[in-house]
Amino acid sequence: MDVTAEARQIDDWIETIVKRMSGRDYMRLGKFMDKMTDKDRPLWATLTNPKTGKMYNSQEEWVTVRLRSQRATAFAARQLYRSLKGTVPDEVMAESEPGTLKVMVSLPSTAQKNPRIQKLAMSSTVAEFTSMVLKDFPDELHDKKVTWALRPTLTQAAMYDRVMEKVQAYYAENEVSVSREDALEYLLRDSEEQIDSAKEE
CB burial class (10 A; 0-12, 13-18, 19+) of residue 39? Predict the structure, then answer.
């Protein structure tokens, strides 16, 4: 295999992996979980537990066997799917990032059904989509609380804490109390302004 062929093969693999990490598999999982755990027609109840050779006695038993360490992800995907089912077509959910769909949940159902919004969801990054819909739906999205987490190393976490405390202390000297979230916002805004200024020079 020559270098170019090897590069193409690896590039294809990376493309596949990236796609599998995005909306398609996540929302497919949500859709399947919705069907398997439907209250009126629970499909798990028709299956045999491979460990016992007997029919599953409960949804919890099926969840334990089938999902193992992925149960939290599976139930989160189901919740997101159910929140949008009926307003956002499955094909739109399959092509959109989970983060984008989490933003869509906060929009009115008329917006969720809007073809323009759906097209944006499929073609934009989470940041791009959020920025665009904020202009049209500021009341629904502005200052909405979300859970957003990083997974830093111990040394990175220590640095983050140290810098946040410095920012909070700086504002406290001027008798202004700021939260860690506000401190992070101020830091990022300053950094963004410096980067934008450097690009203009």
Answer: exposed
